[in-house]
Amino acid sequence: MIDRSLFENTSTAFTLKSDSELDRAYFLFKMISSEPLVRIGTMATNFALKAHLPVEKLIRATVFDHFCGGVNEEDCLPVIDKLYTEGVCSVLDYSVEGKAEENQFDNALEKILKIINFCDAREAMPIVVFKPSGFGRFILYQKKTEGVALTELEQAEWGRIVDRFDAVCKLAKSKDVEVLIDGEESWMQDAADDLVEEMMRRYNKDVTIVYNTLQLYRWDRFDYLKQLHERANEGGFKIGMKIVRGAYMEKERERALEKGYDSPICESKKVTDDNFNGTLNYILTNLDKISVFIGTHNEASCYLAMELMESLSISKQDNNVWFGQLFGMSDHISFNLAAKGYNVAKYIPFGPVKDVMPYLIRRAEENTSVSGQTSRELTLLKAEKKRRKA
Length: 390
Fold this sequence. Notes:
The structure is a single chain. This protein has 390 residues and is of the alpha/beta class. It is 58% helix and 12% strand. The chain has helices at residues 10-13, 19-32, 35-50, 56-67, 73-84, 102-119, 138-146, 152-175, 186-203, 221-235, 249-259, 269-284, 299-311, 331-339, 353-369, 373-389, and strands at 89-94, 127-130, 178-181, 210-215, 239-244, 290-295, 321-326, 344-350. An 8-stranded parallel β-barrel has the order 1-2-3-4-5-6-7-8, surrounded by 7 helices. Helix 6 (102-119) links the parallel strand 1 (89-94) and strand 2. It is globular. It starts with 9 loop residues before the first helix and ends with a helix.
């Protein structure tokens, strides 16, 4: 039987946090819980950085150090090692966004290759991650998705994107490091899906190395998985899939309204939850062919995964099943799961403070918009502060 009070254990959840770190976390989530404060803070931070005001130390000492591992890989090592003492692995996430030049894409490739080599011989780092748009211009993915013919120059550019994907997956295969490839907006995702599937065909013959991402606030993604499953059975390759609810909901709905097509987003939170849980059930009952990285901060979905694993006699240590949460969030899920012996990894964003700010701002905005997320964090932090005083 699964202990349904598992995630209430704040002693285990915050075992690595000092009293001052606990106070900082409480302060940050209290700030994030106020939408006007997030809006004002975002504007002020953007202005200060653009005006080159000396605010990086302040950002680093507060929001950056809570949600990020450091400014480079070496900077993240103390965080990685500390997490691993409690059985939590790390996924280094180079969270620099919005680049659009070939040399920037080449730099991103070199960064990911360096991280894979960095992971080699480190048990605490079995997984890497990158975004498709980190390796090539968004508009090219969009054109491919929409079936627009590429020019000769664009075809050559697309070839370089394919080569970047292949270089990462090839090295990862040789080092036995798993690769999570993030999902992005629906109007570019088909091209990314096709490319990731090609990498699965090449590198997932015997074990799962390459993972795509299903954003399950989209009502069509479960069907996509079932179709991919058929192709995998025919093609003799394994599927890797990170499942999440999604990160671009407002943008998706606005574009659908503007362009006059049906929104790809599920009609309600309940339908999204049902879609996520149904997909999770499908994957765990087909674990011979599909490996899963369960990227969620939703407690009900985590309990469901544990119950399914128990009923299907899936070992907690089966490498085909991973749980994942973001660094700085949902420690009550990550550390309590790890304490029970499940495979758990934290996404650890890193990069120069200024370059990582768009990521941090999005995190703050998401926490503000997700009903109950921030209040749950605050309740647990408050409970742990009270427990320590007692």
